[in-house]
Amino acid sequence: MNNPPRRKVKSELFDLVVGAIQASGWNVLYTAPIGSNPLHIIMQRDDASFPLTIYIWNLTHGGGARRPRQEYRVQITGVTHITVASGAKTLLLGWWGVSGVFAGFDASKHAGKVSASPSIQISEDVLEKAAERGIVPYNKGNGEIAFAIRPDMLATYIQDLATLHAIGTQPNEIDVIDTAVDEQTDDTAALEAVAEPRREVIRAVRAKIRSAQFRKRVLTAYNNACAMCSLQMELVEAAHIVPVAHPDSRDVISNGIALCALHHKAYDRGILTSHPESGTFRVALNLREIQRLADQRLIAGYEQFKGRLAPTMRLPSSSTHHPNVEYIALGNHLRGWSEEDFTDDQAVEFIS
């Protein structure tokens, strides 16, 4: 029989939360001493910023023979109050080391003075399901909706924390969230059954969950490495070939490419792209755009930039995960490329 994983000390638990946020492309700023309990940080990216107050404990079975075998819990220790401050998001988390997932509880339901022997429960099967699906709701049956959350989905959970814990007024809301991670599931009927104005709220949350799941699938397919320069270092993003805003865009791996932050920006700007040719995807530079930058004296670093590029994109091992050539053609068109560009030496330079 396998031994249960070692319980994490508090600093390790905080590191797990911070690492999960950073791995999803967010920056973390510490606003209180790192050893403080709870932990106070700011999660920031682009123009979005979320102050966070973080409580976390290990999830254990505990409670003796009377407690259901499938039930795991956090035992609240080390604090006398759970504080839910206005202007900040309060996370009340558990860590389950068996499958490496978090449990997220509704802090507003547990705010205030901590009682003599407090514990908060979640089901083991929900935790196991989250390891595969990413984020799974759990109706505790007492008016609280909890979640089991894989680390790559934690930042998405945080962004819509209050909305997620408020779902469940109708069964369809939970159904929509529960199936949001599955790109093959058509949950249109369940979504349409949600009453307005909640429908648009749930639709927006579902879109964020599917986007995060898309990121996970694409990065896994590309081994977390940039398809154009092989960089890893958790600086790689999932780029949509057909942009999200286009009606034909889909959150499927064949509509994604793993690109480092620099090459993702250059790809979306139309500075570089890929072109299918004889079973490969050649990397091409837009010479007209390069000339425009040179004319504006904004060309410094270009040779180093070009020198990092591979002649062809590094593709996933599974051919079913390769970029769809129709998506590539449409994505190129939307970014200002024409098919004629790829036969015009004055328009395109292929990396050799």
What can be said about this structure in brief?
The chain has 352 residues and is of the alpha+beta class. It has helices spanning 10-23, 124-133, 154-159, 161-165, 171-178, 188-192, 198-221, 261-268, 287-295, 302-307, 325-334, and strands at 27-30, 39-45, 48-60, 71-75, 81-82, 89-96, 101-105, 112-113, 119-123, 135-139, 145-149, 236-240, 256-260, 272-277, 280-286, 348-350.
SSE map:
Layout: H1 10-23, E1 27-30, E2 39-45, E3 48-60, E4 71-75, E5 81-82, E6 89-96, E7 101-105, E8 112-113, E9 119-123, H2 124-133, E10 135-139, E11 145-149, H3 154-159, H4 161-165, H5 171-178, H6 188-192, H7 198-221, E12 236-240, E13 256-260, H8 261-268, E14 272-277, E15 280-286, H9 287-295, H10 302-307, H11 325-334, E16 348-350
Parallel strand pairs: 3-6
Antiparallel strand pairs: 1-2, 2-3, 3-4, 4-9, 5-8, 6-7, 7-11, 10-11, 12-13, 14-15, 15-16
Could you describe the 3D structure shown?
The strands form four sheets. Strands 1, 2, 3, 4, 6, 7, 9, 10 and 11 form a nine-stranded mixed β-sheet that branches. This protein has helices at 10-23, 124-133, 154-159, 161-165, 171-178, 188-192, 198-221, 261-268, 287-295, 302-307, 325-334; strands at residues 27-30, 39-45, 48-60, 71-75, 81-82, 89-96, 101-105, 112-113, 119-123, 135-139, 145-149, 236-240, 256-260, 272-277, 280-286, 348-350. It is elongated, with a radius of gyration of 23 Å. It folds into two domains: 10-166, Trna Endonuclease, Chain: A, domain 1 (3-Layer(aba) Sandwich); 236-350, no CATH class. 35% of the residues are buried. The protein contains eleven helices and 16 strands. With 352 residues, the chain is of the alpha+beta class.
